[in-house]
Amino acid sequence: METTTSTLKLKYEEYKLANPKKRIRDIAADLQVSEAELLATGLGETVTLLKKDLENILKQVKSLGYVMALTRNEYCVSERKGVYENISFSPHAGLVLGEDIDLRLFMQQWQFAFAVKENGRESLQFFDQEGVAIHKIYLTDNSNKQAYDELISQYQDLENNGIQISPAKPSVHTELPDTDIEVAAFRQSWVSMQDSHEFFGLLRRYKINRIQALRLAPEGYAKKVDLQAFKSIAETCSAQQIPVMVFVGNKGCIQIHSGNITKLVPMGPWFNVLDPEFNLHLREDAIAEVWHVVKPSTDGDVNSIEIYDANGEMIVQVFGKRKPGIPELTEWRELVNSVCK
Predict the structure, then answer these.
(1) Quick check: 194 and 302 in contact, CB under 8 A?
(2) Which residue among 4, 24, 181, 282 is least enclosed by CB atoms within 10 Å?
(3) What mean pLDDT comes out for the span 110-120?
(4) Stretch 131-149: mean pLDDT, rounded?
(5) CB 318, CB 312: distance < 8 Å
(6) How far apart are CA 9 and CA 6, in angstroms?
(7) In whole angstroms, what is the distance from residue 220 CA to residue 218 CA?
(8) Of the candidates 76, 83, 127, the residue with the CA atom closest to the CA atom of residue 281
(9) For 143-169, b where at least 16 C-beta lie within 10 A, e where not — what string?
(10) Helix (H) or strand (E) holding 50
(11) Which of 283, 279, 301 is nearest to 292 (CA)?
């Protein structure tokens, strides 16, 4: 293990010298290892392995004050600045319900935690068993550095000097034939929803994936649109300051930005939001399908724009800003319906 780590460390250092602008996630892909394995080559120097007491580590993040939360999947990155507040855990999921930092945490996926120093920045970084990043927390100029140092001191793993990564499992995307789906019952269940959060339960009950569900949706509840529809909606939300909710997630974490999006900056294949408190980076050339989706609730219909990759995995989901018990914004509903008519 030590020899393997030393060899990888040398490769990593050489690669960084030759490609100084490349990010660690892309270097890991090029070297055919996980990001966590690359980080582990810096243990004892720029990287500290933390104990697997992950819930308690997260509960203490509030003490760090104003930080930047980063969650990403293969094709989208969400970065939100704020304070971790109202942190709780249940057997199903963890929650961070601050005014700015809003997260859903699926802790069964969380395996490794590191404290990292890189390019003058300090962060806490969390990974799954395959070494894929789930969530990262970066200090800002306004963070409590002393609290960060105390957290590392308290949770540093002194018993282990390495990590064991599981081989990546190939993604399996199976889909039942439409003829095996109880389509009429599924459609009736859709229109009978009392809360948009019931949708995930419908998928499980009818053994149906999201794209298939949208394809088989009841009339008027899901419509395939193009990428330009999403961009037009984003541009109008920016111009008219219509507040939105932007969901970006992976199997271990969903991060939600609630508020305005203002500065939209296209850059090569990337669609970017570059605001002081919120940044979004969306890889346009990875988008396979865009859908306008309507889900019923006791507060009225809820409209969303959902973006998927070629494997049917959700990249990003956008709603009008709303809270339970309050109908969605009329401006959002009218905008989405006019663009996606």
Answers:
(1) no
(2) 4
(3) 94
(4) 98
(5) no
(6) 5
(7) 6
(8) 76
(9) bbeebbeebbeebebeeeeebebeeee
(10) strand 47-50
(11) 301
Q: Are 137 and 70 in contact (CB under 8 A)?
A: yes
- Kindly state the helix (H) or strand (E) to which residue 230 belongs, with its residue range: helix 227-240
Q: In whole angstroms, give the CA distance from residue 98 to residue 86.
A: 6
| Confidence at residue 2, expressed as pLDDT on a 0 to 100 scale | 44
DSSP lists the bridge partners of residue 65 as 143
Helix, strand, coil % over all residues of the chain, rounded to 5: 30, 30, 35
Contact by Cβ (8 Å): 243, 206: no
Please give the model's pTM, rounded to 2 decimal places: 0.95
H or E element, residue 123 = strand 121-127
Number of residues that make up the chain: 341
For residues 125 and 108, what is the distance between their CA atoms, to the nearest angstrom?
A: 16
Which domains are seen in the chain, by residue range?
2-87+110-155 (3.40.1570.10), 178-339 (3.40.1570.10)
Residue 170: φ, ψ to 5°: -65, 140
As beta bridge partners, residue 117 has: 122
| CB atoms near residue 256 (< 10 Å) | 20
Q: Which residues are CB-contacts of 217 (< 8 A; sequence separation ≥ 6)? A: 187, 190, 293
Nearest alpha carbon to residue 134 among 258, 283, 249: 249
205-208 own/partner pairs: CB under 8 Å, 24+ apart: 206/181, 206/182, 207/176, 207/181, 208/176, 208/181
| Whole-number pLDDT of residue 1 | 43
Confidence of residue 197 (pLDDT cuts 50, 70, 90): confident
* Inter-residue contact 307 to 229 (CB < 8 Å): no
Average confidence score pLDDT of the chain: 94
Nearest to 337 by CA among 195, 233, 211, 210: 233
Residue 3 has pLDDT above 60, yes or no: no
CB 113 within 8 A of CB 54: yes
Q: Which helix (H) or strand (E) holds 89?
A: strand 87-89
Token pair for 8:
């990888």
Q: What is the pLDDT at residue 174?
A: 77
